[in-house]
Design a protein that fits this description.
Helix content: 40-55%
Number of helices: 17
Order of helices and strands: EHEHEHEEEHEEHEHHEHHHHHHHHHH
Shape: elongated
Largest sheet: 8 strands, mixed
Structural class: alpha+beta
Radius of gyration: 27 Å
Distance between the termini: 53 Å
Strand content: 5-15%
Length: about 450
């Protein structure tokens, strides 16, 4: 098989000996070391790869310790009896340990699973021919800082793509030719921006220009992949710097098109809705750092609040009446359209609508510093109060308080024994409310 253009001339790697890098075995997960030692003792290569090497080099604690080897999945299953094979187009082996700990082991690959459709003329790539060399595996990765290997035999770092220099210089760079790599897998744009935001790194000029030039290719990705990456961005602990980069690149308007025309990506000093959006993202980051990440519906409600205010003058809506009911239906239709491509569940969209529609109630009573009993009995009160607190903190008020959430003010049930004639159960044949869909309530048969 002819090599692809990206792999036509592979350079010799930079080998960094133990004395010249900061990674120590004592900082590597014990179970990951066990897997690597067993692979080495069985005659296979064993490398710590990806984000674990990056984070250890930067002095951070990795979230996961992933391992690559030249052993095939079947050989790994034989070597590790406490394991299973997962994946369809490219197989991983999960090795299980006590305490529900899992170490993932992959076989070195020759190209990304999402690049198989991009082939040279007359080149045929069989689906089972995805295994490759150490160098090929490095060059199929997304960013140079994620393409490093730490090998267990001599405790060295192996660098084919210049990732160590980029770590030292605090640079985010896509491996290979940025335009071509992005077209092959547009999600790489999202990863580049997320890692730049999370680490405070600068995106290299060619990579940045390629992101801006190829933004529309993100529409070709499966919705599920875009959704997963989007919520990783929001829950990264760096939502505010991510938002600034996403707005500046234009990616933000692909993910949340409702903001197109409402905020500007050229603004030097953000004001109005842009300022409120960034302030809400900073609140999200503070809560994440304190160990209180927001659930999906509250995250999205907070992100959509500046849009709702700009589009509908949300905070000045009447608190009740026919106008409010009609507006809630209009808002729900708008939210459905704006979040359709992110595969947000219907229940979450309903909760987002309820939170935004009822926010003016919290703003009015919050100014009075008193929560009426009828409001405290509403099912949406805990989340509505939290969204109000997020909004107040974004405006410079007191920090939002997540612990504990307010309990409903509904009176407790009586423990006295019931007297008199027992209540008759409702007839089973009672006709349910019409749902508007086939199959009865909620469309169930």
């Amino acid at each position: 098989m002819a090599p692809s253009a990206d792999l036509a001339e592979l350079p010799d790697p930079l080998i960094i000996p133990r004395a010249e890098h900061p990674i120590s075995r004592k900082d590597i997960d014990r179970e990951a070391l066990k897997v690597m030692h067993r692979l080495r003792d069985a005659g296979f290569s064993a490398y710590l790869v990806g984000g674990a090497v990056r984070d250890l080099y930067l002095g951070k604690k990795p979230k996961d310790f992933d391992i690559s080897t030249n052993a095939r999945p079947g050989e790994l299953r034989t070597l590790f009896r406490n394991s299973r094979i997962i994946g369809r187009r490219f197989r991983l082996v999960q090795v299980f340990f006590f305490g529900n700990k899992i170490v993932e082991v992959s076989t070195l690959r020759c190209r990304s699973e999402f690049e198989e459709g991009d082939r040279e003329e007359d080149e045929v790539l069989a689906h089972n021919n995805t295994f490759g060399s150490e160098a090929e595996d490095a060059f199929r990765r997304d960013l140079t800082i994620n393409a490093l290997f730490y090998e267990i035999e001599n405790f060295t770092i192996i660098d084919y793509t210049g990732g160590v220099a980029d770590l030292n210089n605090r640079i985010i760079r896509i491996v290979g030719e940025p335009d071509r790599r992005i077209v092959r897998d547009p999600v790489r744009m999202m990863r580049a921006i997320r890692h730049a935001a999370r680490s405070g790194f600068t995106i290299e000029a060619r990579t940045w220009q390629a992101i801006i030039a190829n933004l529309d290719t993100l529409r070709l990705c499966p919705d599920s992949r875009v959704r997963d990456e989007f919520f990783k961005d929001l829950n990264s602990g760096a939502c505010a710097p991510w938002c600034r980069l996403a707005v500046a690149s234009g990616m933000f308007f692909l993910l949340l098109p409702c903001y197109d025309g409402i905020i500007s990506r050229e603004a030097e000093e953000p004001s109005g809705e842009t300022s409120l959006l960034f302030a809400l993202c900073r609140v999200i980051d503070r809560l994440h750092a304190s160990g209180n990440p927001l659930p999906e519906h509250l995250l999205l409600a907070a992100l959509l609040l500046p849009w709702g205010q700009a589009r509908f003058d949300l905070l000045h809506l009447p608190a009740e009446g026919r106008e409010t009911f009609a507006f809630s239906r209009t808002l729900r239709t708008q939210i459905d359209a704006q979040l359709e491509h992110l595969n947000v569940k219907r229940a979450s969209r309903e909760e987002i609508t309820s939170l935004l529609v009822n926010l003016p109630v919290f703003v009015r009573h919050g100014a009075e510093q008193a929560w009426p009993g009828w409001l405290k009995r509403k099912s949406y009160f805990p989340d509505g109060l939290l969204l109000f607190q997020l909004y107040q903190e974004a405006l410079g008020g007191s920090p939002a308080d997540l612990a504990p959430r307010p309990e409903s003010a509904a009176p407790p049930r009586s423990t006295k024994p019931r007297t008199g004639k027992p209540r008759q159960p409702r007839a089973e044949s009672r006709t349910p409310a019409f749902s508007g869909k086939k199959g009865g309530i909620f469309g169930l048969k």
